[in-house]
Amino acid sequence: MVEQFAGKWTLVNSEKFDDYMKAVGVNFATRQIGNLAKPNVEFSMGDDGFITLKSVTTFKTTEFKFKLNEESDEETPDGRTTKTTVTLEDGRLVQKQAWDGKTTRIEREIEDGKLIAKCYMDDVVAVRTYEKAA
């Protein structure tokens, strides 16, 4: 099931992402950059069981390697260090990040050939839509 996420994806639409970053606690300057950034996201699967999630923008490139159902340390693009667990639930990759007593959840799924990422923090939900890169 994870294989459907493999490949490069380009951001084509973003809704309420500034609200989400604000809820997570991202400062104004970093949010401005985050709102301008149009990340390319790349999922790759290693033979060792690790999945790599790479996010590339003109501002910054981050890479997060993880195994499903195992807690890992993650350095987020906005500079948070989180304890992150990624699970596969009903065909969705569910990424839970915990830091400083807070938690957020990012659910990614494939709909009509697009990668839909829903970011949840408290009562804020941001939706980011990616198309498969050629």
From TrEMBL:
Pfam families, A to Z: Lipocalin
Record key words, sorted: Retinol-binding, Vitamin A
Domain Lipocalin/cytosolic fatty-acid binding residues, every copy: 6-132
Gene3D superfamilies: 2.40.128.20
Superkingdom of this protein's organism: Eukaryota
The keyword Mitochondrion is assigned to this record: no
GO molecular function, one term: retinol binding
InterPro entries: Calycin, Fatty_acid-bd, ILBP, Lipocln_cytosolic_FA-bd_dom
Function of the protein: Cytosolic CRABPs may regulate the access of retinoic acid to the nuclear retinoic acid receptors.
Family listed: Belongs to the calycin superfamily. Fatty-acid binding protein (FABP) family.
Descriptive protein name: Cellular retinoic acid-binding protein 1
Organism: Amphilophus citrinellus
